[in-house]
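Incident review: delayed structure delivery

Summary: a single-chain prediction request sat in the queue longer than the usual turnaround. Root cause was a stuck worker, restarted by the on-call engineer. No data loss occurred. The affected request and its eventual output are reproduced below so the record is complete for anyone auditing the incident later.

Affected input:
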Amino acid sequence: MNYLSDWVERDKLDVLFLDPLQNLHNENENENFGGMARFWDNINRLLVRHPQLTVIIVHHCRKPDANNKKEWLNFEDMRGGSMIGGKVDMGIFMQNDGYMKGKLNFEGRNVDHDDTKFKFGMKDGVMTAKGTSLVDALIAGVKGAGEKGIHRDKILVDLDINAKTLEGLLKKAPHVWRDSKNVLYWSTTKDHESE
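Output delivered after worker restart:
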């Protein structure tokens, strides 16, 4: 990686794109130690030597499981060992969502998961994007359920989130309240004690 460091220094680079990961090494991507660990150590040395540098590494996901198609890709879907997800600060997952349509999902350290999922497409040669925050999606799901409410587990599946993320979303949605059976409801008041 010395040649990369020299290049960054000579050209005063702020951003370095490396595309794709599998062409940057001769190691077994499925091994979390050994060669892949050395590869990531080299990337870290490059960043230590050039703190202004942002390194963007393009990588591919595994082929999707036809029986378990996920709505949104994340680190679990990447090719190779789990070390990859632990070594990067942010993953930007792009996937096909039909003809001239796609989806982007941002995941990583210090990423607010409320506004990280976007759908985009092309219409008349112009790219359009639609982002729905998870808070907005939670509110829409709860409001859409009406008076009967919606169970917490259904929201977890529908939004493809975990319980910890849901707890954070509930703090940002004061009109959504939960009963003792984990059913979520919409209320026009913030005081749910009387509900």
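Verification: The mean pLDDT is 85.
Action items: add queue-age alerting; document worker restart procedure.
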